[in-house]
Structure formats: structure tokens, C-alpha cells
Request: fold
Amino acid sequence: MTIDTHLILVSAQAVPNITPVMDERFKPKNVVLLVSPDMANRAEWLEQIYIKRGIKSRRWLIKDAYDIDHIRDRIYELLTEYEAGGLALNATGGTKPMSIAAYEEFRELERPIFYVHPEEDRVIWLHPSKQAGQDLADRIKLPEFLQAYGATVTAQGETFGVPADDRELTEEIITRIAYYSKALGALNYLAQQATGSLKVELNPQQMNDYILADLIHLFSKHKRLSIDKQTLTFPTEEARFYVNGGWLEQHVWGQCLNIKKQSGIQDIGRSVQVKRLHQGRPVRNELDITFLKDNRLYIIECKTKRFSAKDQGGGADTLYKLDTLKDLLGGLQAKAMLISFTQPNDYDVQRAGDLRLALCCYNELPKLTEKLLAWVK
Reply:
């Protein structure tokens, strides 16, 4: 069925309002946005995407997203402007009264209605029900997806693969994570103290830590630092950042690239910096690794700061921040994972479960590939 115009119900969940127009087989020439006053900003975000895709759009305003009689009247007025079959309803978004009112009016006048299955990313025809559904093509990329939620991508990290020398380094750390974990925390702290000067002095306790010495030797062998007596020196700021935890992000990035093809990841980014407005002020966030699969957003946070065993909420701030970003930037279907080389305490494990955040920490890291594949499936 070819239909020139879609009516969409603007709401906080943007994905069902953009995926159908990204599929060339289903793409309309025009879109009408049913918009309540509180959704004006979200309508504008969607319009910016439609314009880039060559789709004309206009708004059809309603005063109250919960006044079902008012909404029915407005939709009836709209339908009188279109011939039968010229306008189809995307019944996925909006408030419940919006979707009910729109469905009733379209059904009464025998106009086409479809629904985008949020889990399967598939169009289902509600009327005529005999019309075959179809899977939607995964066309949308990260900048457009994030734009639909009011976020602008301002910068991204390099998208190259991980060099063989770095893979060898991180593989040594990951396979012996139980041995290196405590020393990694100490080395992270030292690298942080070297900000600016690129030099830091080891104290007597650190000098006598043989596991830390092994770890320093490992990074030194791969030319990320050097040590002369008790002085640790980083050759560049990039090397200091890498030792200060950047190695974990790079390792995870490499694993994500490895599974990209077999898992069907449609777009992926590293160190993605986004800007959005909150109460009129710009808010900036950086996503360590983020990707799209089946038009669903996945966010990965790589944590190198040690969880506090004494504090019952040691990782609470990180987990709550990750959960908030997941909802703000990806809606209800988005997923997020926290990856750390340290062992979270029981409170943080429970909190992550309550927030439906995935974890891959400490001795789970050697099985990261398997964890990622299970997560995206």
C-alpha cells in the first residue's frame, strides 16, 4: 500500500515517529504532526529530521492531549481534507486519549492505520488488518536518532580499529584482571596526578608494590610511560589519558567493532559528545560508546574509578546518571551497560538490576564479547 501522507502523534517516544519515514519502501512524501502545546519542542526536533529527508511536514494543533472529544473533532476536520487512502495513521505515539481518538476516527471512516512494534521494529497494519506487515529497514544513524530526542552531536572520537600493539596490551590486562585490578586503581590515581606535568612521584608504599611494578612494566613495554627510579613519566597527554583508563574504553570499542557485523549494529560511535537544552541552558554529555541496533539506542559507560566498598552507594551516581541519559537520549526502548575493571558492591549490583542496567565487571571482562552479543540479542 502506497500512502503519501502519515499522521503521527507527537510524544516523548520519538523512535516510532521516525523509523517508518526512514524506510524508502514506506517513506511518505508528507507528514502531519498532531501536537499538543507541551510537545512543541519535540515536534520541532522531528521536523528537523524530516526536512533533511526531503519530507514536507505541517502541524495539526490540539489544545489538550487528554480531551478525547476535542481530539476526535480535530482529527475529523483533518480527515475531511484528504481523500480515502491518502492519509494513514501511525497510531504508535501520543497519549492514550490521542491514540484512541485517532484510531476511532480513522476506523470509522475506513482510513488506513498502522502501528510500529517497539520491540520488533516492524510495521503492523491495524486496518486493513489483512494488509501484510513489514520489517523496517535500519536506516537511521546516530546524529539523526539523537536529534529526535533533542540532542545535537558536537564531536566524535576516532572510528579506527584498535592497533595490534594496544590489543596485546589490553588482552594481557583483561585475562589477568583479578591480579591487576587493585594495581590498576593505583596506576589510574598516579596518571590522574600527572595531569599537566606528565610526571608523578611514587611513594615508598607504591615503590614496594610488586604487582604495580608489573603493571608499570607492562605499560612501559608498550611505550605508554617510562619510569626512572621513583619518577613516572608519560610521553604525551594522550598516553597519560590512555593509562588513566582510556585503555578500557579502547578495549570495549574494539570488542564492539568485532561484533558489529554479526550482530547487525547499524551505526556506532566512540566518545560521542552531545549537547541538549535543559530549562533553556545547554547541557553537555559524553557517551563513551554508543550504537544503534534495530533502531534502538545502546549506551556503554566505561568506569575506571574504583567502587567504594565502604559506601553502600559507591556507584550510585554513575548508575543514576547512566539511567537518566538512557531515557533522555533513547526513550523507553534504550539500553545501557556499565563496564568496570573493579568489582561493584552488592548494593550497586541490586541498584543496576532495579534500573535495568547491564553490568560487565571485574572477572566477567574476559567474556565481554559473549556478554555484548547476549545483550544486543
